[in-house]
């Protein structure tokens, strides 16, 4: 008897917070003939190849039908985009697959299920916010003595080799699933954001489809269905790249309180942001050659000490003005309310589509807050923007540029090219369409800052170090463009090639420029420090350099804490000490000990060296069940770990498992 395979596809909020679910069903065909048709931070250096080999000892093809579920754990939207692309590709592989909306979390334990995971690593080895409930559920299964022996799985990890805990979330998920008895169909791939992540994923997807074809006894994916990087051609339409149409609505249109369930991760984060009035903003290092501000805003509601505030910052005014001119948008038009509808849809169409950002909103808010108009987009996004080009020569430059991957990598990692600069260099003749532009350009991911105030203060304080430095001119890059692309510069681009360039961190620049009475958009979420139970009753060692002091200020403002507190703080010099007056006050408290290291003085010392001098003091805290908290730069964090392991004989993972080692690094 012949059979066909049907795949279900559902996008929903649940389990890993959002998933694309497929059900594979086997049934008899009336005519006896089978049908078998089938369906992303800053200075990366080296690319790690993704491992895509099938796992040794793979089991035979499955005898029972089950469901295929594609999950993603995503903080910035990259894992989500890859998972959705995989879902689309799987559905195109077999057109017989049918939708199924009735999928329950626990059904992952049913025999015959195949789970495909695209999981990013957030912060320093953590799971993304939308994956935490799913991971807790897996851990509960283990504690309850349950297993997932009927589950087969594949994992693609997303991370950056800049971090010591490279792809830690994917590795942790793999370990959890194996401990529960699940079978790994395909060796885990570790995608590296410092390399060509999309190519890593595409390579892994080819191997994945081969494994699925064998496992499900279906014809393999045709070679021609493997996606290839599209060439930009004159006459390409942006409408072929995006699904929606822009519509203007009346000024009294009201946005729903909660984001639609089908909104993507970044859109949901933007949707959560609410207005907070700035109460104060002052530079704490006026005598230094760097600027670190304390930005104080109204809380609006209760919060926990050392929570994270995610700030939806505004694009620089000159950048917004630049794109207003490119899009032919007047000042008066910025106040117009806009929304999106499915192609050929009406303005009153129910929001049964994926909005690119919170709508309805003003056109001004879209340009100012929701689009990332400063960072250089991915190659895929830039190719989509190529549909706005209007000359064959520009299209040819585009295609040559993306054939030379080292040029794009240089723009991103060495030159810190901004989107306006890219448009000036390669898209000067482009005619940007508002509806297409608003959908194609990357959306802004709110920036995370640990709240540096205790709820008892009645304010939310953020510690913000302004990022600004001189970077390379385009002078040398100009020679590479001419040699490799045959680039012809204009008078305007020639001037740009020789101008001095300053990198300005978009969010830090924005926050440090806020004035009293201004409004800042943000939402809060827990941090590693805000979730430690019983911290008030425990002895605590706090280690930080620079702005890493933020969560510890929130802790020392809690007057109810009576247990011992030992601080190791690192600054460039006395003029760079943050919250200096408060530190002087707590030095006089009997339960506080404060050690400060200065790295740019006649006798330089870093905070980790200071820690090494007081190893026994720290060991005593840990031996008593106390907690060691670390916040600051990644190099400092790595050396602290080395000291704890080498001089104290403690394993970091053991301390973390007991809740005695908490860190947030950047």
From TrEMBL:
InterPro entries: CysJ-like_FAD-binding (IPR003097), FAD-bd_FR_type (IPR017927), Flavdoxin-like (IPR001094), Flavodoxin/NO_synth (IPR008254), Flavoprot_Pyr_Nucl_cyt_Rdtase (IPR001709), Flavoprotein-like_sf (IPR029039), FNR_nucleotide-bd (IPR039261), NADPH_Cyt_P450_Rdtase_alpha (IPR023173). Residues 1-17 form the signal peptide. The keyword Mitochondrion does not apply. Its cofactor is FMN; FAD. Residues 68-209 form the Flavodoxin-like domain. Transmembrane segments: none annotated. Residues 258-533 form the FAD-binding FR-type domain. PROSITE patterns: FAD_FR (PS51384), FLAVODOXIN_LIKE (PS50902). It comes from Babesia caballi. One of its GO terms (cellular component) is cytosol. Its EC number is 1.6.2.4. This is NADPH--hemoprotein reductase. Residues 32-58 are annotated as: Disordered. One of its GO terms (molecular function) is FMN binding. Keywords: FAD, Flavoprotein, FMN, NADP, Oxidoreductase, Signal. The keyword NADP applies. It holds the Pfam family FAD_binding_1. It comes from the Eukaryota. The lineage of its organism: Eukaryota, Sar, Alveolata, Apicomplexa, Aconoidasida.
